[in-house]
Amino acid sequence: MTTALPPLVIPERFNMARYCLAAQATQLPSKPALVVIDDPAPGTPALEIWSFAELEDAVLRLAAALEDHGLKPGDRILIRLDNTSTYPILYFAAIAAGLIAVATSSQLTAAEAEFLMLDSAPRAVALAPQLPRGTIPADVLVLEEAAVREMIRHPRRAAYADTRAEDPAYLLYTSGTTARPKGVVHAHRVALGRSRTYQGWYGIRPDDIMLHAGAFNWTYTLGTGLIDPWANGVTATIFVGDKTPQAWPAIIRKSGATLFAAVPGLFRQIMKYAPPGPIDVRPLRHGLIAGESPAASLFGDWQARTGTEIYEALGMSEISTYVSTSPGMVRKDGSPGRGQPGRRVAILPVEGGTDPLPPGHEGLLAVHRSDPGLMLGYWNRTDEEAEVYRGEWFLGGDLGVIDADGYVFHQGRANDVMKALGYRVSPLEVETALAQHPDIAEVACAEISPREGVTVIGAFLVAKPGHTPDPADVVHFAKERLAQYKCPREIVIVDALPRTPNGKVKRSELQKTYKARHEHSA
Fold first, then answer.
1. Rounded CA gap, 35 and 72, in Å?
2. Over the stretch 472-517, which tens digit does the pLDDT of each residue have?
3. pLDDT tens across 433-449, in order?
């Protein structure tokens, strides 16, 4: 269906960093753009406060330093930094200079980092000293974190690169249906595509303060926590201290946050570990959730404890959030909302065809490929690109239903990609790592729910004859090969994996097996 808003006008020349910073640095030079907090205690000073003018100055000086190191528009820079303000400053500096920023998680193992290094073929890599490195090709320029911090004080400022709206701005890696992560390339125009979220999800106002619970290196944080607030001249706040559930109400109060974005599980944890009764989150206007499906009770429980609402969004790496609820919308149980104003969202038949199905029919959730928020494509994966486009529609592999009022009801993922703790994880990637364990004959992974509102990765193992896999050892084995968020949280030993007549693992049966065992032991 098509929602009522005119198409966005996308200029031919457009730089995403300029869009987020230039006008704000001129019109709101002294307003805080970025506040970094490391202590929730009231009265303690913020760790860092960057005004819009200071932030743009740092970004453009770092962009000039990158240029003076010989980096040219179109070169890729792999960012392997820890959770400090240096990360987003480098990210925006690369984009300002016309480079392609490759954002990566600090949780990656050496092998995972090495794969991204080889796959993205960067011209440079920025490295924090304590993070696993893997093998770095000799022709890759290595920028140590301390050197990057010095480059923020480079003697000259760059001009924003005169990029086209269709030029690549950043590359992010996401788990898909293959055993290795795939790169998603986004153009500079994506910042304009994201403008549909301003009122379609956030209900953002100029006087808002956005607090995001994630780390700087998470694309959810970079988008919802930084790109969108800065494009609206809104202060962004990030907490880098000990992120215990008990601390977040104090962090909200101390930061003055009016918008708080996180995965649904964190909202549940805040309520679980808070003292009984009301939770003081003043001056919060409302919360924002994305990344995983919430329990139906979350919305009412949070409103009862805090007096504020939660607004949900559905998205994916290829287009960010595109379905959501927003202030003033009626929420329907089981639905993340409607296609955001100006977006074309439809349901297509699973078996093929380009004509959208009528309301109430289940099929593949589709977004029109003219959407400016849609990716340019997959990095070096033209074969997978062909699989996600059908006529004028992009298909992300999600099953859904759209009702007569335009509300989308998510029915699961046709491609079995798991979502755990807000991250998309390919079961094949986890299975490939665990299959190397000497005690494991077969392994299959599935998304499971140990309790309401929580989804984690479960690994179902068939032991080799004469072997008995130790669950703790299997988890340790996984942590040596996979980022923490990809590691299974539950290990289940089974006699055999359920399979179809054609030999394919039936993941839905794995989930039923876990549920039955979980209920039996309860």
1. 31
2. 999 999 999 999 999 999 999 999 998 765 566 787 788 888 888 7
3. 999 999 998 899 998 88
The tokens for 123 are 């011209």
Q: Which fold has domain 425-521?
A: GMP Synthetase; Chain A, domain 3 (3.30.300)
pTM confidence score: 0.87
Question: Is pLDDT of 382 > 60?
Answer: yes
Cα–Cα dist 406/206, whole Å: 29
* Greater model confidence, 181 or 299: 299
Location of structure tokens 């480098």? 90
Asked whether the beta carbons of 489 and 423 are under 8 A apart, the reply is no
Nearest Cα to 80, choosing from 152, 21, 148? 148
Distance CA 191, CA 141 (A): 28
Q: 254: Cβ–Cβ under 8 A, 6 or more apart, which residues? A: 37, 40, 41, 42, 44
- Cβ pair 462, 496 in contact under 8 A: yes
Distance, in Å, from the CA atom of 473 to the CA atom of 519, rounded to the nearest integer, reads 25
Give start and end residues of each alpha helix (H) in 416-506: 427-434, 471-479
CATH architecture under which domain 49-189 falls: 3-Layer(aba) Sandwich (3.40)
Amino acid 418 reads M
**Cβ–Cβ under 8 Å, residues 404 and 360:** yes
* Cα gap 252→177, rounded to integer Å: 38
- The total number of residues shown for the chain amounts to 522
Binning pLDDT at 50, 70 and 90, where does residue 266 land? Answer: very high
Tell me which residue of 91, 68, 78 sits closest to 20, measured CA to CA: 91
Residue 500: predicted pLDDT: 62
- The structural domains of the chain, with segments of one domain joined by +, span 49-189, 425-521
Which is higher by pLDDT, 423 or 115? 115
Q: What is the average pLDDT value for the chain, to the nearest integer? A: 92
Query: CA 165 to CA 373: how far, in whole Å?
Result: 11
Task: Name the band, by pLDDT with cuts 50, 70 and 90, for residue 2.
Answer: very low
Q: Is-cis flag, bond preceding 283, omega within 30?
A: yes
362 burial (CB, 10 Å; 0-12 / 13-18 / 19+) is: middle
| SS3 of residue 250 by DSSP | helix
Token match 């990637």: residue? 429
Give helix 16-27 / helix 52-68 axis angle, nearest 10°.
140
pLDDT band at 416 (very low <50, low <70, confident <90, very high): confident
